[in-house]
Amino acid sequence: MELDEVLQAVGPRLRAMRLERGTTLAELSKSTGISVSTLSRLESGGRRPTLELMLLLADAYQVQLDELIDAPVTGDPRVHMRPLKRHGMTYVPLSRRPGGLQAFKQIYPPGWPGYEPEQQVHEGYEWLYVLSGRLRLLLGRHSVVLEAGEVAEFDTRTPHAFVNEADEPTEVLALFGPQGERMHVRARPAAR
């Protein structure tokens, strides 16, 4: 892909990212310090992106710069996972595209969190597969222990929390749809 083609594709990509997140130009301007008119011209292709502008936008969208500009593939198709630590847990992002369904490997340390957590609610839909260990899912009035190989899925507007009461880490594959996207599981090919 030629440089001009990459630069021409940046505007529509920026617009799509902003719309996926439900963000207005004014909101993006406020969070980045880039004027609304500059953002509009970037999205329409009326202005060429500069490194300074792209770094501000990458930070605002919480993506790597190469994802923002959709840099040409360099021959390595692997997703380079960068673990994140939050609230004593380790999250390993397994998907690179912003918006829509996101995949994570989550590692709950032994005895996490060390107390009975308050159940939380938020927009979205979650699907969990326990890779190893045991995870207690608190879902409204229910408490379910998931063993390795078991799956749970639920609307995240239902109060929920997770507990690892075991003496070993629990590893989970999680798929999350921020706008409530559901996973579609097929046991056999669809009829034609």
Automatic annotation (TrEMBL):
One of its GO terms (cellular component) is cytosol. Coiled coil: none annotated. SMART domains: HTH_XRE. InterPro entries: Cro/C1-type_HTH, Cupin_2, Lambda_DNA-bd_dom_sf, RmlC-like_jellyroll, RmlC_Cupin_sf, TransReg_Diox_bact_type. CDD domains: cupin_XRE_C (cd02209), HTH_XRE (cd00093). SUPFAM superfamilies: lambda repressor-like DNA-binding domains, RmlC-like cupins. GO terms for molecular function: DNA binding; DNA-binding transcription factor activity. This is Transcriptional regulator with XRE-family HTH domain. It comes from Nonomuraea thailandensis.
